[in-house]
Specification:
This protein has helices spanning 11-33, 41-45, 50-63, 67-87, 91-112, 119-131, 137-162, 174-186, 189-206, 209-230, 240-267, 274-304, 307-321, 323-338, 353-375, 382-390. The chain has one domain (6-236, 305-390). By secondary structure, the protein is mostly helical. The protein is built from 16 helices and no strands. Helix 12 (274-304) packs across helix 13.
């Protein structure tokens, strides 16, 4: 398939993907540097920035947690359907090859670089979406909504009621945190690889996380594919009144639902019947996440169609066009800051949310600048080019304009 012509590009989708990647970067970095992973609560409370770290972290969880990855996964499904429409009968075989390469890249990333890799998960869920590609639109919509909610509920039930009977170790315990910190401070890369392999087994495989998040991702893929069928983002200017209506309803509703969920998560233990309030919090969160993500999507689309909005948002499109490269690069930035591997700073347990947020902003601006330089010479990011080559297709020739890009599940035009 030749790279799409300039008229085929959907620039607002690049913007959406870039915005999602910023949220993914912030949430991943904050979660990994936070309590239970690379720091204990006592260590974080002892930081001089603790007075601002904890409230800022709660605000970040309210605004970004699960919304960024929801939007990112949604766009994968959207890109899937665009490729299906463009490639026709040849689509399935080519897409399987790409998914196999993505699975291999993801497993390597998971084993040797990043504990929370999503590439292997997206590859597996991509095979699921490929198998469901002939479903009617209504089934895609209903099935996507059901899977998006039930996957997480299944995981929580399994963790609460099944896993305790199998001698599951507490991988978020202080002992495991201190072991991770010691390995990170020593720059012991083989030790970290071995430790995180055990963590991945217990939390991701034995803990049921892989199955739950497979459903979670597949549900969002299906919703993205359903949206692509409707043609709303492909011709967003014509559907702008509809996006404005979604923005007016979904954004405030999502902020309220997620705000209530965070308040209950923080203060619910002090309320009467805390177990009941915990269930209320889960329901509010599961409903609030897709609603708020839809509000963000609509808001970005509406803003993009304003001249000032385009000027502000256009840098996001550069990162969105190099989604695979940008995502993997973020994991190396996190490892550099938190571990002492190679030239790493080894700041695990000594860095709070305010510092993390500052690093994310600086790092993301750096990604924009690198993307601008790279895309001035090549039509795709380096990992996107490698993905294409490994899937059996030579990368496109260097170009001197940004008008010709290849469409991939992580980089849709």
């Amino acid at each position: 398939m030749p790279p799409p012509r300039p008229s085929e590009r959907i620039e607002v989708v690049d913007v959406l993907r870039g915005a999602a990647l910023f949220g993914v970067f912030l949430v991943n970095f904050a979660g990994f540097a936070g309590r239970g992973l690379m720091a204990t609560t006592d260590q974080l409370l002892a930081l001089p920035t603790a007075w601002i770290d904890f409230p800022l972290n709660e605000v970040s969880r309210w605004l970004f947690e699960d919304k960024a990855n929801t939007l990112f996964a949604f766009l994968f499904g959207f890109g899937f359907w665009l490729q299906l429409e463009r490639q026709g009968p040849a689509f399935a075989a080519a897409y399987r090859r790409r998914l196999l390469v993505l699975l291999a890249l993801g497993l390597a990333h998971l084993a040797f670089a990043w504990l929370w890799d999503i590439l292997h998960l997206y590859a597996l869920a991509g095979f699921g979406l490929l198998a469901l590609r002939r479903l009617p639109p209504r089934a895609l919509l209903i099935g996507g909504l059901a899977l998006a909610v039930l996957g997480r509920l299944l995981h929580e039930y399994y963790v609460s009621h099944v896993m305790p009977g199998f001698g599951w170790p507490e991988v978020f315990s202080r002992a495991w945190v201190f072991e991770r910190q010691a390995l990170a401070a020593a720059g012991d890369y083989p030790g970290l690889v071995g430790h995180f392999a055990a963590f991945t087994y217990w939390d991701w495989i034995a803990g049921g996380g892989l199955v739950a998040w497979f459903c979670y991702a597949l549900g969002r893929f299906m919703l993205g594919a359903w949206t692509a069928q409707r043609g709303w983002l492909q011709d967003s200017s014509r559907h702008l009144p509809g996006f404005r209506r979604v923005l007016r309803i979904a954004l405030p509703a999502g902020l309220i639902l997620e705000g209530l969920a965070r308040l209950i998560a923080v203060h619910g233990a002090k309320l009467p019947s805390p177990l009941i309030w915990a269930e209320v919090q889960h329901v509010l969160h599961f409903v609030g996440v897709p609603v708020l993500a839809a509000g963000y999507l609509a808001g970005l689309v509406v803003a993009w169609h304003h001249p000032r909005g385009q000027r502000v948002l256009s840098p996001l499109a550069l990162v969105g066009r190099m989604a695979l490269t940008s995502y993997v690069t973020q994991s190396f930035i996190i490892a550099f800051v938190l571990t002492g591997v190679g030239p790493g700073l080894s700041l695990a347990g000594r860095i709070g949310f305010a510092s993390v947020a500052a690093i994310v902003v600086v790092g993301f601006v750096g990604q924009i600048l690198v993307a601008r330089l790279w895309l001035g010479r090549f039509p795709q990011g380096p990992l996107e080019r490698a993905w294409r080559a490994l899937a059996g297709r030579p990368p496109p020739d260097p170009v001197r304009t940004a008008g010709r890009q290849e469409s991939t599940p992580l980089s849709v035009r």
